[in-house]
Amino acid sequence: MAETRNGAEARGGRGGATYAEAGVDIEAGDRAVGLIEQLLRRTHGPRVMGRHGGFAGMFRLDYNEKLFRRNYRDPVLVACTDGVGTKVKLAAEMQVRDTVGIDCVAMNVNDLIVQGAEPLFFLDYLGLHRQVPEETADIVRGVAHGCEIAGCALIGGECAEMPDIYAEGDFDIAGFAVGVVELRRVIEPDMVSRGDIVIAIASSGVHSNGYSLVRRIIRDAGLRLDSTPAELDSCRDPTGAPRTLGRILLEPTRIYARPIVRVLRAYTKKRVVTGMAHITGGGLPGNVCRALPEKLDVRIRKSTWEVPAIFRFLQAHGGVAEPEMWDVFNMGVGYVLIVRPTFADAIVERLRRLGEVAWVAGEVIRGNRRVRLVD
Q: Which of 10, 172, 260, 367 is the residue whose CA sits 20 to 30 A from 227?
């Protein structure tokens, strides 16, 4: 095998068809692995085992080092997988590759923590038209950064070069996350009670859902991704400069893992948080209901926050009906907690101290597992 990759056969000495002629460059793949190694190591702690480049990653669940001691009495592993959807089409068109990796981590770990779990480790999958090591490293750089934000280890992944599947310049990304929660701390819908309070946490923008509709609006309205529309003047970068429409739409999904885990750890005796929801495809109506038991509804007051400008911009240029907007997009709310009434104000304040924009948005009432959006 070494001779095939590095010697005469790789230079065509063997004759006949080659893998490179079929569109797959093994040497470029090896170089990409070398560039990625340092990105992975930034996310590793004492629980990651094994050498980079093995067939699988290893992670210790329990460990006894004095400085990092962490053992579980009755651990439940929680796992999920998700991708970024057609947001990657915008990223490819703009040749911006270092943000969708953050999205991929966010879409997974934000689902994971809903059950009360803390993220442990993450793996990614990249589907590529052609292996360009520097471009691949840009994508994985985003994944590694997302893992650092989430507090989990990136312990492996796969880069598949498939020119027959992906068009020139196209790529796809998916992720796989594993976390853990003590059995007695698992959060399930039957914990929610009438009178519990709904706390909303702000999104960072469109996140990673609804981009098929977003892209259609851009196409049909003739919008330019490099434009800076006056309606979006409030959407500025940290320096205060206007941001292009494309950059606003590529803003990474906010990762809520660290603040949510810290809130959950603050209440070790009482079950204060009774339900949570990651607001993805389906918006508030399609996701908060998943945290409810039978015979209970959630009433959310839309007047408690201002819908971000990007959503109204898309609605206006696409002629999208108001109910459709709420059924497709997060409309400014990326995550929801349902908590006991006496702890609501304290949890909002704690989330704000952790850097989140959080507020009381509604309450649990009698019903049948529906979300009632009221003015």
A: 172
